[in-house]
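Lab meeting minutes (informal)
Scribe: AK
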Amino acid sequence: MSKKSKKKNKQKSGLDSNTQSSGLNGQPKIGKEEYEAEIFKLQVELVKLQDWVKTTNARIVIIFEGRDAAGKGGLIKRIMERVSPRIFRVAALPAPTERQKTQLHAQRYIEELPAGGEVAVFDRSWYNRAGVEYVMGFCTKEEHRQFLRDCPAFEGFLVSQGIILLKYWLEVSKKEQHKRFLARIEDSSKRWKLSPMDLESHRRWYDYSRARDAMLAATDTAASPWYIVPSDDKKRARLNCIAHILSSIPYEEIPFTPPKLPPRQKAKGYVEPKQKHRTVPQVW
């Protein structure tokens, strides 16, 4: 990352915000136009990061964890919006199969780790063992204890092999999570986001709080620290988290030489066939 870019990321955004309260520490809301302008700047930097990763064969793992409705999906969507899915890959694994349940817990996640020139973005990760699996009784207390004991060593090994590992916990308040769950019920376009597990997580707020506290206490290490992202304000969470990702990776802008488009080949007698094909209705 260039000195100019680093300095820019460390500075305040200087957004021309309106005076409406966001409800988060009394901060003003970020206007839509200002937000889109800032997110675009960060996405341009993500493209530069992508070029550096590809050129240097770097391997990066970014983990996003948090309660249901904390905003992980929207943040990941913004990260992926302008980068190549062949370099930035999202791993959002379903529930394990019966065979996978008999494997080492980390085994199916290891398969998703990046090769050289890749960024693996985990929408939940091996930390399922510390959260939903433990709270919902999908693992034993001993398996949970073993995970918290062994996880720092596992992540230390990843870092020792040259992988850049970043871990983010999106922290949503009880009031805001409740509000977002209600929105999912009322909005037909969001109902697919509300699963039985989500409903249970709403009920077991304090069980998840205790599980989170134990996870952070055991796995927030010098080699692989956790970073907390306040996410009641989704726009600020996205801007702040992406800016932190960029500032945490020592990337540099790779010089770009604009290619020259070659001229079109000559038709050499080609004529469009007079065939009728089905065309989608032009409603708009």
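Next up, CB showed the second protein from the same session:
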Amino acid sequence: MTVVHSAPRFASNEGVKAALSTALGDMLVEAHEEHGEILFTVKRERIEDALRLLRDEHRYQQLMEIAGVDYPQRAERFEVVYMLLSVTKNHRIMVKVTASEKTPVPTVTTLWPNAGWLEREVFDMYGVLFDGNTDLRRILTDYGFEGHPFRKDFPLTGYIELRYSEEEKRVVYEPVDLPQDLRRFDFMSPWEGADYVLPGDEKAEVPPVAEVKTTEKKSETGAGEKTNDKAAEKVAPAERSSGSVAGQGDANPAPVDTGKDEPGAPAPTEDRPDRKPRKETARDTSGATEPEENGED
């Protein structure tokens, strides 16, 4: 039976990496597939040629996004990632280049007009320069802002922020002042554990838990022999059924009849004398709750 789905099927990655690697030729630095996605690293100065080739000859018509990544420990610390979509093949690939703070990346506004806004975002957040972009202005931060917020060495204190003041009914500029120092980075996964004490963890230091004490004997309970014997008399053994104790679980066990009454338990209701009839109905509260005189003992 053929199942028809409203959503189109994504094209397979089979053969794509090899075919595009051959097409990119000497422009290609590295190609690999990771997490179901194909990534191509190309030479920075050839990025415009590489993307034009992919757009015109391999039908990757749309530039969906340009993202930046910061690796401060690298000589060329930044990566600029271009995410392409083929509408006709329903397939996506990623192309990336590396750059440093002083090595501009050629603009691709000559290929896609929306690249102008996307390159401005990467410039604003990371400080990557795009050669040929005629309108490389900040797009997310404020006028006159200094620094690039997404750099991993960017301090969050000592800068100016703006906000709208309800009290003054206007936009005001204020210095950013955070109490914690956020300039230290170890580039380590938080799940691996840090080699220093994180703020707040010093409060969690407690002495080791003593060995758990169990009461293997009645003498270890602290209640005494008389109390233990008394408790044994009051509890009737329960019949187990399907691994469940009476009154627990989802089975339906019944308690075992020991032939002994529970000390202090109320008498069965069927052994109690009937109540005397009331002389009035509920319309008169005092009369309805008082027994008739001729029925009293």
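CB comment: Residues 157 and 278 are 83 Å apart (CA to CA).
No objections, moving on.
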